[in-house]
């Protein structure tokens, strides 16, 4: 028996195919461009291909994320908070403060000893689009997003990007360029600005676990968060896939007919 | 609800009455803030119009976002009350949902009467119209962030209420009659008790009425307070709710969770949010907002002091401590599983998530809390997607929470 979980996000669609004992046998991530439905089909198809399985083999499919409503044939939809918490807990098996940083809507979650979410704090509406902001920053610095981190490592200190509004922050990047800041300083500053926004959302204590695509591609954000918070920071294994993994675990529940 | 047909008749008659008075000069017309000193106006024979009710209509009809830009262009910031900017924009563009009730626009006032017990904006709002129409604007500059309501607070407000009387008498062309004031205060008190009884029905499982229903049924408590019609309406509604409770009929087909809503409604998304909570089988059983038109202090034997005390005891006028104690009591009374705070961008005085209250409430009661960003009328401040995912996640979080004892 195999099941699938998919996290249909604003920057990437992630899919996981797993066996009923939770072993991941297929995974895929595709950039979100154009229609969510097409990206979802592509990601799921790629994950199934890696698992050497067919669509008809799926006993259940659970979807989550911004575009979850674009997968109407899924067995069920589960909130992103729960999927990220479950995916992270599957790896770490302990209570945690989990920071999920995706393309759109970062969250600070408190996860209890059973993997349950006990509180959720979101970023304020005007700061939505944090991961996407990094993509815009790459464009202004004229580098591919995957090179933004390399650029940041060339800087000795971050430029100050202080606005909580993603659009204003983008304008700040342009102003910094005009003022002569180096591309590396701006790249690093953009990552620190994300850490600062997260620090405003909730009190961070203990070891902070991080999931989501931002820390996969921009680990400077995790380092900045550790530095700003003074807390040890731990990146969840395969952080970009945490939501999809959680969704797959809910799909196993659904296939078993239990509490999903 | 069967009472809805009567509600529609009453609201139509209210709008027609105040419009006729303004057009045909059959009675003096006053504008009054929603928790202002309406009993004085009733006693003096005024037809009373409540612009906050109009603001809510502009929001619910989503006309607000079409018109408020005109008020911004006049210097009224997008950061101030979007009732104010919606209403002034509506006036400037002559576009209003009142047209569905046969009115061409909000009726012209002979006098504007405010109380700042809720916010400063109401005064600025009324002063705009005072300049437009060259009519008097009078009011009460109230205390805010009150811990315990003390005698000196009450005395100061009584003096201000007394000071309103000469202007109100002059515009109305008659003297204030003590017996009529006592009657108006008595009717307001009765209306308040009956509306309170309707809302307390929400403590039953399943709740017979949701917050979303309540925001509609509270119309008479706002615009007809101090009249017999309002009292008759709430007797009708209360009887229907009691019958629902007796028969075990809930507002939702299934009620898995019970939520308390703090803050303003998101008027332009009332229907969507009601549908979302219904789909999640989660009943929003009580709210600070609907409870705001319960005035326990009103006493016909002591009109002005009791009006003053009632205006000061309001939740919105109180400090964080009394507000927290109030919310803790409502969590118990309504056996709620979670509290949602609506942080309304342009209504800071009705947003209680800005000074750490959700965190303290969670710690004190163990009840999960969620804060959603939005606004009463300005949908630019509201994200459907963010609100939906946060609410869905919150309800799924409640599924994993330890169950509360049932009432």
What would a concise description of this structure say?
The complex is a heterodimer of chains A (260) and B (407). Chain A has 9 helices and 10 strands.
Overview of the structural elements:
The complex is a heterodimer of chains A (260) and B (407). With 260 residues, chain A is α/β, with parallel strands linked by helices. Chain A has three domains: 2-83 and 241-256, Nucleotidyltransferase, domain 5; 92-125 and 201-239, 2-Layer Sandwich (Nucleotidyltransferase, domain 5), CATH 3.30.420.40; 130-195, ATPase, nucleotide binding domain (Nucleotidyltransferase, domain 5, 2-Layer Sandwich), CATH 3.30.420. Helix content of chain A is 42%, strand content 21%. Chain A has helices at residues 36-51, 80-92, 130-141, 148-152, 166-179, 183-199, 213-217, 219-229, 242-256, and strands at 2-8, 12-19, 24-31, 58-64, 76-77, 96-100, 107-111, 117-122, 208-211, 233-235. A five-stranded mixed β-sheet of chain A has the order 3-2-1-4-5. Chain A has a five-stranded mixed β-sheet with strand order 8-7-6-9-10. In chain A, a hairpin with a 3-residue loop joins β1 and β2 (12-19). Chain B has two domains: 9-177, Rossmann fold; 181-399, Rossmann fold (3-Layer(aba) Sandwich). In chain B, the strands form two sheets. A four-stranded parallel β-sheet of chain B has the order 2-1-3-4, with helices on both faces. Chain B starts with a helix and ends in an 8-residue tail after the last helix. In chain B, α1 (3-24) runs antiparallel to α11 and α7 crosses α14. With 407 residues, chain B is α/β, with parallel strands linked by helices. Chain B is built from 17 helices and eight strands. Chain B has helices at residues 3-24, 38-43, 51-60, 64-73, 82-93, 121-133, 151-172, 178-200, 211-217, 219-223, 228-247, 270-279, 288-291, 303-313, 320-333, 357-365, 384-399, and strands spanning 29-32, 47-49, 111-115, 137-140, 257-262, 282-287, 338-344, 369-374. In chain B, 53% of the residues lie in helices and 10% in strands. Chain B is globular. The model of chain B has no long low-confidence stretch (mean pLDDT 96). In chain B, α16 (357-365) links the parallel β7 (338-344) and β8 (369-374). The interface between A and B is medium-sized, with 18 and 21 residues.
